Amino acid sequence: xxxxxxxxxxxxxxxxxxxxxxxxxxxxxxxxxxxxxxxxxxxxxxxxxxxxxxxxxxxxxxxxxxxxxxxxxxxxxxxxxxxxxxxxxxxxxxxxxxxxxxxxxxxxxxxxxxxxxxxxxxxxxxxxxxxxxxxxxxxxxxxxxxxxxxxxxxxxxxxxxxxxxxxxxxxxxxxxxxxxxxxxxxxxxxxxxxxxxxxxxxxxxxxxxxxxxxxxxxxxxxxxxxxxxxxxxxxxxxxxxxxxxxxxxxxxxxxxxxxxxxxxxxxxxxxxxxxx
Length: 276
Prior knowledge:
Elements: E1 8-12, H1 17-28, E2 32-37, H2 40-53, E3 58-63, H3 69-83, E4 88-91, E5 107-111, E6 114-120, H4 124-152, E7 158-162, H5 177-199, E8 205-211, H6 218-222, H7 226-235, H8 241-253, E9 262-265
Parallel strand pairs: 1-2, 1-4, 2-3, 4-7, 7-8, 8-9
Antiparallel strand pairs: 5-6
């Protein structure tokens, strides 16, 4: 990681969960981290914690909604003006509301990898939110990032898509299919961009990181109560956010000639077959 000391990373969804863990880990590795989130105050709290800990790097909180293209452009411009531009992009922001495909009526369905009953139906705003956040925002941020790298003559940048094992197979959980579809799109777009960069003879690297169940706030956001979410995490094998951050640092720290294209992470003991 020595060659990345002092360089700049943009991390979306940096206010909590995997995004906050990645922002923290990169700052502790002496990088300058632009932490993008709608809840800017939480990123400010994280930045203050790291200053107290004497981190060699720093987090720069920037408020932004990745589903708003003007916010994406504003973040890119702010990073260029204040820090000289970004060298690493972490597309982490994502949402996973349960959404039944065939009916507007509410019915029992699952939450992500967890076979626990929620009530949800087809809500237009939910399916729009899934694809605008998980797919379109990722595509727009990646496009602008690559264009900025090439305009600045930077040819060793690195792009990370925080994907999901839900993007590698069709999980048999009613309510998760729209989310899974968005992650399948990310899987295809990762390989598509890799091929485009090869055609450009670019040394910019791209890595998809696909975890299974991770202990974050996402189950509560999906609709579980805090008590049930905690009970679920305590009962099922799950990963911690630091596990994902450590995987990213591993891929980022490999020599420039090494392309870590995909990292798939399952918690030990997970019976993934039961979801298929």
